[in-house]
Each structure stands twice: as C-alpha cells, then as structure tokens.
Amino acid sequence: MKFINLLSACAVIFSQVVSTSSPEIESEDAQLYFEELAVKYGHPAQKYEVITEDGYILALYHLPGSKEVPVLLMHGVFGTSDIWMLRGNISLPIVLANSGYDVWVGNSRGNRYSRRHVYLDPDHDPAFWNFSFHEMGVYDLSATIDTVIQKTGVKQLNTIGHSLGTTLFYVLGSIRPEYNARINVFIALAPICYLNHIQPLSSTIAKFVPVLGEILNKLNVHELFDEPTRSIVEQFCTLPVVGYKLCVEEVLFTFIGRDPEEISPEFARIAYPHFPSSCSLKNVLHLAQLHNRKVFAQYDYGFLRNRRVYNSSVPPEYDLKKVTMPVAITVGRNDKLSEVEDVETLRRKLPNVVSYEVSPREEFNHLDDIWGAHMDVYLYPFIFKILEQYSES
C-alpha cells in the first residue's frame, strides 16, 4: 500500500508540473458520472436498482423515449454505463434518445455502479468476486431484461452489446433459452466469443494469466482495478503527451488495434477517468481460458472440482444452437480482440444471424464502436437500419 501511495503521489506531482506548461483544458466530461452526463446532453436519466437471484445490486439507467420497443445497451469488460456516453452528442444513448428511442443502459456486477450485494462486502468478502461473465450472463443480464420488461410492459426489447457485453447474450441464450423470446433483435458490436486468433500481446498474456491468477489468489487479490490502482491509472494516463503515448499508443492500441484518428489525445483524457473500472480476477481468468482451451465453455476449475461442479472432468461448452434470438453482427478488420476469423466461427455456430458486416473502414478497431469520433458516419447507419427493420416486430 505504501508503494501504491508513493506512485500515486509521484503521478500527481508530475501531472501538476506538466500541466503548467500545457494550454489544454480537460473537458468536464472526464469528471461527470452517468446521470450528470445524461443531464448535460439533454436526457435526464432515471436510475433503477436491479437485484439478481444471487444477491448482487446493479444500477440500471433509463433515458425515457416515445418509441414502443425499448433498447438495452450492455457494456464490455472493465466498462460501465459511462463508456457509452463519452462522445457527448454523438454518444449512442444520446443519439438513440434524440431519435425517440426508449433507452436503457445496464451495468454488470463488480463495476463502479454495481459494487454492491445484499449481504457481501466487496472490500472484505472474497466471495463477492467469485464470478465471471457466466454469472453476468445468467444472472445480471436476465435480471436487467426482466426489469426493463416489468417497467415498460413490453414483451420484447431490442438489445445492443459491445465486446464482453455481447458474450453475456450468448451465455444467457444458451443456459436460459427462454430469454431468446424476450429479445426482438440483438446487435453485437465487436463480439467476443471465440478468442482463438488474438495476437500478441493479448495471446501472450493469456498464456501467463493462469499462473498470475494463482499468485494473486494466494495474495487474496480478487478484484482488478480497485480504487487505488484505478487512481494511478487515471493520473498517469491523463497526463498531457506522455499519458497518451504510454497508455494509448503503447498499451491500448497494442490490444485493440491502432486508430489515432478516432481516439485522439484529447479524448483519451476524457476516457481514462471512466476506464478501466473494477472487475473480478475470475472473469479475466475465464477469458484467458477461452483462448488457451480454444473453446467457448464454462469456467474450468480443474479436473477434481470440475467433477464436483459439472459431473464431468471438463466444463461444458455453451450450446450456441440454443441462441435463437435474431443477431446482427458488425466487426472491424483492425480489431485485435474480436478477430474476423473468430467472429466468422461465431457466425457459423449461431442459428439466427440476420445481418453480418465487416466494416469497410480499414482502421476500425475494438473501441471504435463506442468511442470513435465519427461513429455517426461509419457505424450508426448499420445500427439504425437494424432497429428500423425490427421496429414492427
């Protein structure tokens, strides 16, 4: 803890020194939370608490609209509802709300807005962090969908997921197939399911994650990007010049694909106070297993515990044939996490893909779906075409 505090203090001092020579003024959006951003851009949000079957308390935000079929947005790994709002007037929730859509924005367990439980304390109970995207799909997404349906009185809703936010729908549709009928259409942005073709540095880290996980578990570390760590990341990554160079060009673009035209230094200083948010170690371990085992399956506990949990030596695969909801997919050729080859595998296994698009923009990376400066030009026509196509369903 002393080492963390020292790093944090150094970052603050360096930030003050650099900023005295920089004329840049950081946008206020960097420090605004979801409800404040919603008010600023003309659509005050209603907040709901969603309590899952296993006791997690999730935040769900609503931007009211007049169109009959509501639209639910689900964020990706290390994200929150905020990530959808950081482009101001061209942010997807705002654009949808401006077009009259009834917009709902969810939060999965463990992030800044859903770090609560009916009896577990995330700061003192390791059991709070005993979840991966499996529980997010089976419990969080189902409870969120049920809440939207209950509050609106509709029988179906339109849904949009980004990255790991898409994974939750494959999990839910396969484990609890009755939920397929509650989804009018699902738009999958940069879908994550198979990770067979991810490139270094991601593939290299995935190989070492199991060993790192064992070490962190022994050290009783179950939460990634907790508040002290998050503060350090924010302070360093929002530094003028050096923050963008290190955090975006050297790290982020290595993982997601390079696209400085869409994610600029000015925008990075808005984004990093909101990202990354806290996440469970188990979730990252599960994602690494997708790559290392080359199969879309439930969490691998090891031979003996698998026998107890699954009555099998290996965890069961998610049966994508049961994911019968209509799915519209879009992916970028420059996406280093959602590789086109892996998305093609997903496409072949899903029984009801109603639209599939590889972005004609060559630089399109893993975050251009939610953070791109020109999303309204290269992405939103696809989204609105699908929503309008299913508006009468």
Which structural traits does this protein have?
single chain; 393 residues; alpha/beta; Rossmann fold; nine-stranded mixed beta sheet; two-stranded antiparallel sheet; 15 helices; globular; disordered N terminus
Describe this structure in words.
The chain is of the alpha/beta class. It has one domain: Alpha/Beta hydrolase fold, catalytic domain (Rossmann fold, 3-Layer(aba) Sandwich). Helix content is 41%, strand content 13%. It contains 15 helices and 11 strands. Strands 1, 2, 3, 4, 5, 6, 7, 10 and 11 form a 9-stranded mixed β-sheet that branches. It has a two-stranded antiparallel ribbon with strand order 8-9. Helix 3 links the parallel strand 3 and strand 4. Helix 4 crosses helix 5 and helix 6 crosses helix 10. The chain is globular.
Can you describe this structure in just a few lines?
With 393 residues, the protein is α/β, with parallel strands linked by helices. Helix content is 41%, strand content 13%. The protein contains 15 helices and 11 strands.
